[in-house]
Amino acid sequence: MAEFKTVAKVSEVEPGQLKHIELDGDTQICLANVGGTFYAIGGECTHMGGPLGEGELDGTTVACPWHSGEFDVTTGEVKGPPPEEPEPTYEVRVEGDDVQVAVE
Amino acid sequence: MPKLIRVDLGKLSVSTESAPDEYRLLGGRALTSRIVLREVDPTCDPLGPGAKLVFAPGLLGGTAATTSGRTSFGARSPLMGGCKEANVGGTLGHRLSKLDIKAVVIEGAPPDETWRILRIDGDGARLEPAPAGLAGRGTYYTVERLLDGDLRSTSIACIGPAGEQQLGAASIAVNDPEGRPTRHAARGGLGALMGAQRLKAIVVNDAGTKYVEAADRDGYRALVTGFSKTTLEDPRTKNMSTYGTAGVMGFVNRDKVASLPTRNHHLGTFAGGEKISGQTIEAQAAERGGKMLPCMAGCIIKCAILYNDAKGDHLTTALEFETLTLLGANLEIDELDAVARMDRLCDDLGLDTIETGNAFGVAMEAGVAAFGDWQAALGFFDEIGNGTELGRLLGSGTIAVAAHYGIDRVPAVKGMGLPAWEPRTLKAMGITYATSPQGADHTAGLVTARGVTDETYLKASRQEQVLQAAVDSVGLCQFSNPAAEDMARFVSAQHGVDWSPDDVLALGRRCLLDERDFNRAAGFGRDADELPAFLRSEAIETAEGPAVFDLPDELIDTFWDEL
Q1: pTM to 2 decimals?
Q2: Domains in chain A, please, with CATH?
Q3: Interface ipTM
Q4: CA-to-CA dists, residue B96 to A84, B32, B108, B210, angstroms
Q5: Residue of B nearest to A45 (CA)
Q6: Smallest Cβ distance to A66: which of B177, B225, B294?
Q7: Domains in chain B, start-ordered, CATH in brackets?
Q8: How many angstroms away from the CA of A44 is the closest CA of chain B?
Q9: How does DSSP classify residue A92?
Q10: CA nearest B378: which of B304, B315, B314?
Q11: Per residue in B384-396, pLDDT tens?
Q12: Taking the alpha carbons of B165, B170, B172, B174 in that order, is the dihedral positive or negative?
């Protein structure tokens, strides 16, 4: 059963920015602010585990800081190699100043 | 515990042992050269029963460090007779490391005429008869058939018809991430040894394995992030990502630089240079659908040119500056499609483009065909593929062709054809070619400094050769431009040691000394360090006047004194 956890304050992640988040249980999340709307996908690149939240965001595409693999933060789909597998996506909501992500 | 796999083709046996502890902090070139020094009789027939082919991933293989998946192949070179290492990108190196393989040593004379393949996977290693119909086929067919569509877990290293014929210019092909045999351990004729061993291919499958974890996991991850950022921000990377190695053509072809071997090394500039430049290829790609590719998963430089023909169909990948020069300018051929076709044929036949271009240049000098006659040059490949007398001669390398036609002006050092960096105008390259145990191999120490003192040329070549030997040993690509500090941090975090930059340079230095010791035992004396006489006697015209290679032998002889 997924449950919402607060992972950041709204003010921490400006539009166009990313944040790499490590939760308990080895879950890592890449939180993205796209024009004021928050999205969350898996935080480890499916290629070799690069921290996506430390990469660069261009529109809805995040580039991994290790090997430039690209994912769409709104869907988790691979947008550019070397990764072949998509990232999981997580439901996001904003409660007050808290950004919350639904995780198992 | 990392494994050392031994393959005895004489007994048709394979054994696996723990790699000796002394090899723990050796990898890539340093390891293959050490094993060759330790285990190979330096006076053996390079294609005979005493020869051994060794291959090894680098110290950082199987990790996330960008470009860290290179593989070194080493042996007593069938072409030069010395300790040769040829390293290659492609998908092989990471898989070997993920399988915890330190090195593979292949030895012994095969008992019969059967062509075999070596399979390596999580269950071990084993020899099998090559599938029917594989012998005699090119590397494109061989790789496609043995990959069997499994790009995710399988890599192939193989030879083509040139290797099967045991020709001195024969390479070992490794597939790229798109499944094409476009990456080659090209120099030194190591493919000929595989041919002598009647080993058509090596098939490596890493299904079920994971990338190699570092001793200091978090520290290593931080290093990977920083190194990738630095590499991406480096202007040299942007140039490589746009034009590949071919982007340097404009620079070396300037009248002032005049460093583009042209017409069998008679000239330093080529009127048709722009037609075969990276800039022309890049502009043409917009019409034909060409693109830039990484040679291995995880490379962020992406310098491999995918070149399509006029119909938009794939013609070749990894069309390099060296190829465009030796098979283009050096033959006075400026038909870009023809040079790209020759690159494809070299890949498919399993030939070193540098050695082949030099051999063709000498043949043209001898009057076998006219300079500029690209149709004749393409015809040469038919001769090689068909194993005709002329083809076997041309595929045997620069010195063989010169000897056959009585040409005493031979563009080679230690048996290796000269690369595309002209020593008369880039004088440090003359020092590298003369002193490197690898012979005339630009990757052993590429220095483009001009207008400095003789002593500075010497020092620059020495420093670069030491650094490059280390780069080849950790398994990074030279185009990621790693400094000794970068490599020290990576090796320390990966292997749980405390290496300084000096330790990295000591690795490179020791590697060079191993190779020199082998060469000396093989009979290499001072004369082996001589550059071709024409480089000192025939001037190249430059905008700054005529240029010859004029660094004194006495200076070059001090190369090893302060190593």
Answers
A1: 0.96
A2: 3-103 (2.102.10.10)
A3: 0.84
A4: 21, 14, 22, 11
A5: B64
A6: B225
A7: 3-205 (3.60.9.10)
A8: 12
A9: E
A10: B315
A11: 999 999 999 999 9
A12: negative
